[in-house]
Amino acid sequence: MRMSAPASIMLGVGIAALSACSPAQPQSDERAAARVPQPPSPLETAPTPASDNCLLVVWQDQKTRDEQFDLAHDSATGGAISCATGTSASQFANAFTAIRSAARAQDKAAILNEVGLPLLYIDANGKRRELTASDDVDAAFSEVFDDNVLALLRDVDLDALTVVPDQGAFVRLGSVWLVVDRSGGRPRIVTVNKQALGEAADAVRAKAEAGEGTRAPQRSPE
């Protein structure tokens, strides 16, 4: 039905009056600025590559491989080892076996053989130092690999591993980080973080004091 001119004018006046009585809405930029970002839900996160596909890529760059072991142990905290780190579980297992043996024997040369360059060293107070040459690591060895770090390395294994896509893998809340320098390669220690090691010790101690019965490691005196 067509509306007469006077009726149309009256309707326009009524809408204007209602708009004047309504609270003003913030502009779109203001609304966007007022929103607090929320972490994405699991359904919103991007899908990760299938671990079998990542292993196939990794295996192509390895002359020898342990396919059954890699398939059975590819899952770690944080995701698939092969997808996150670019190498296989067997390479981490081999590296950890060598690291445990070297730490238990306090074999300096063997430990240095498992270190990659540059090595980032973070002391108990959070001071960072990048050791870019083998001689630098050798000179700082007793400070970097003290009794607390060696105690950690004596028992390190796959069960303690957490992986971070495109960043590598770590143990004990980031106390030690390992990365590979090529696809399918052997992981090397590239970060020793005594501040994180101290925080991990504090967390274990708190659990022990809460009555969970876990023996707390000693904190570094630094």
Q: Per the principal axes of the C-alpha atoms, what is the gross shape? A: globular
Structural class: alpha+beta
Mean pLDDT: 81
Q: Rg from C-alpha positions? A: 28 Å
Assign a percent range to the helix content: 40-55%
Describe the model:
- With 222 residues, the protein is of the alpha+beta class.
- Helix content is 47%, strand content 15%.
- It is built from eleven helices and eight strands.
- A six-stranded mixed β-sheet has the order 4-3-8-7-6-5.
- A hairpin with an 8-residue loop joins strand 7 (176-179) and strand 8.
- Helix 6 (89-105) crosses helix 10 (147-154).
- The termini are far apart.
Essential attributes:
alpha+beta, single chain, 222 residues, 11 helices, six-stranded mixed sheet
Brief digest:
Helices cover 47% and strands 15% of the residues.
List the helices and strands and how they pair.
Blueprint: H1 5-21, H2 28-34, H3 51-60, H4 67-73, E1 75-76, E2 79-80, H5 81-85, H6 89-105, H7 108-112, E3 115-122, E4 128-131, H8 134-139, H9 141-144, H10 147-154, E5 162-164, E6 168-171, E7 176-179, E8 188-193, H11 194-212
Parallel strand pairs: 3-8
Antiparallel strand pairs: 1-2, 3-4, 5-6, 6-7, 7-8
